[in-house]
Amino acid sequence: MPSDYEQWDEIYRTSTPEELPWELGRPRPQLVELIESGKIVPRGRALDVCCGLGTNTVYLAQAGFRVAALDISPTAVAQGRRKALEADVDIDFLVGNAVRLPFGDESFRFVLDVGCFHHIHPEDRDVFLQGIRRVLTPGGRYFVICFSSRSGARWNHFSAGDLLGIFSPYFQILEMTEFESQEGNSVLRFFWKTLMEKA
């Protein structure tokens, strides 16, 4: 695993939640909209991959899922556990590497990925997506929020065509929508939200 994946713990150890631009202090509105739409039925097991401080994780548990959450940062996982305790929800938090998911085959009906995929290095993407596909049940759904190239040209900013090429070998793409969001640091950024299914 490239060593800079592990630098995430340094970020979480040296930053307050308010200093983390991706931490909104509430569940992602796009996730709430997805669950409330009925496109994802909150039953069975769900995985929040690269869960960070666990804000979205707690929301999934409150919605009715049995939730596992994975992050490479022990500091983030510890904060997520505290958040779950305060919310009185039961969540299985694990410290681990998203490129090598430590779960059995067909373990989850739903995988949530808010900002994980776009930090996976290009050379690791196939292994990462194979792992997501492996842990999903047949018909299971994968929801990704990732950077859009409208925010500027970078290695981890994507056009619709980029995402179609990357995801299509592994999943049936059900919906892909670009949106803008004012992040926790008040910077306006563009993202894609993509809902996929394991065929």
Describe the protein in words:
This protein has helices at residues 7-14, 29-37, 55-63, 74-87, 125-135, 160-167, and strands at residues 45-49, 66-71, 91-95, 108-114, 136-147, 172-182, 188-197. The protein is built from six helices and seven strands. It starts with 6 loop residues before the first helix and ends with a strand. It has a single domain (3-17, 27-197), classed as Rossmann fold (3-Layer(aba) Sandwich). The chain is an alpha/beta fold.
Question: Summary?
Answer:
The protein has 199 residues and is of the alpha/beta class.
Descriptors:
alpha/beta, Rossmann fold, 6 helices, 7 strands, about 30% helix, about 30% strand
Corresponding CATH superfamily: Vaccinia Virus protein VP39
Q: How is the largest sheet built, in terms of strand order?
A: 3-2-1-4-5-7-6
Instruction: Give the beta-strand count.
Output: 7
How would you describe the shape? globular
Strand content: 25-35%
Radius of gyration: 16 Å
Amino-to-carboxy terminus distance: 29 Å
Low-pLDDT runs of 5+ residues are none
Helix content: 25-40%
Count of helical segments? Answer: 6
N-to-C SSE series? HHEHEHEEHEHEE
